[in-house]
Amino acid sequence: MGFLLSKSMDANFKKQQEFMLHNGRLQMERQILMQNQMRERQMAMQVAWSREFLNYFGAFYAVTTVGLTLGALKRKKPFLLAPVVPLSFILAYQMDSAYGTLIYRLRGEAESIMTSEHGRLDLPHGTPTFDTIEKARRARSNLASFLEK
């Protein structure tokens, strides 16, 4: 009789382990999906910000370029057009950021860094572990209790 009970408990234990494994995997998949959706939303906000900034900067660029061109022609001083050159580079960068392929080039460069220069990505003192975090927490806890005395 004890053998049958033991066999039943083993079967239940295995079912419980499988359920816990399945539940953990499901939870991790949900976490990954949620983090990816948050990343996508943040990137969409950055692109939207670039496009909005481009509207304002484009208007500033147009007014400035027309004003400087008219001033250079009226006063016959071509050096007044000098600020148009750096402003043109800024405008080109913003256009590339808002509507161009900048994000794809950045992604490609990031992938290249991750594959061929992975050492640049290492954190100082390595990746935090449970033990290092717990050690820091205990040190802080001991320090806090010492300061309270």
TrEMBL record:
It comes from the Eukaryota. The chain crosses the membrane at residues 53-73. The keyword Phosphoprotein does not apply. Keywords: Membrane, Transmembrane, Transmembrane helix. One of its GO terms (biological process) is positive regulation of plasminogen activation. GO terms for cellular component: plasma membrane. Pfam families: DUF2368. The keyword Transmembrane applies. This is Plasminogen receptor (KT).
